[in-house]
Amino acid sequence: MTNRFDKIFSEKLSGVIAITSLICLLVSIYVFIIHGSWQFSPILDEAKIAQFGDFVGGVVGTLLAFVAAILYYVALKEQRKDIAINQKSMNLQNEALAKQIEEFEKQKEELALTRVVYEQQYKTMKEQEHTMKIQQFESSFYSFLNVYIAIKNELNTNDEEKDFFKTIFFQAM
């Protein structure tokens, strides 16, 4: 029923009625001038002009008012369609925004997990650095110790008692 009503009351119908009212106005002018026994004189017959005005106001004015009502209805109908389209668009934008917020939340969680991994890697690297320093110290220490032992053995081989430091100690006293 509504579709039939919408099809009947459209811009096309209002155009037809407007053209019909203009044709009616022209026909009424023709009828009143030719068949209305108008006398072309400097004095106008106010009764005849009043009759013509009443006819135009009653018939043509009513038709034009009906056209205005139809166009107002069509404008309201189009405005409802636009509002529905805008509402759908707004709903789609809200859904897109919700998805975007969800993606940002997931990125936030991923960044937090990445930070934990980097902190663990940093901690592991610090431990490895500490271990490497200890190993380097121990390596240097044992290397110096080997040099000491090698020098001591070299000195002991040249000494008669085979204990160079003992000999020097007693000589100094």
Strand content: under 5%
Percent helix among the residues? over 70%
The H-and-E topology, N to C, reads as HHHH
Distance between the termini: 132 Å
* Tally of distinct domains: 2
Number of helices: 4
Radius of gyration over alpha carbons? 56 Å
Gross morphology is: rod-shaped
Total strand count, please? 0
Low-confidence runs of at least 5 consecutive residues: none
Q: Which sheet architecture does the biggest sheet show?
A: none
* Secondary structural class: mainly alpha
How much is the average pLDDT? 83
Brief account:
By secondary structure, the chain is mostly helical. It is built from 4 helices and no strands.
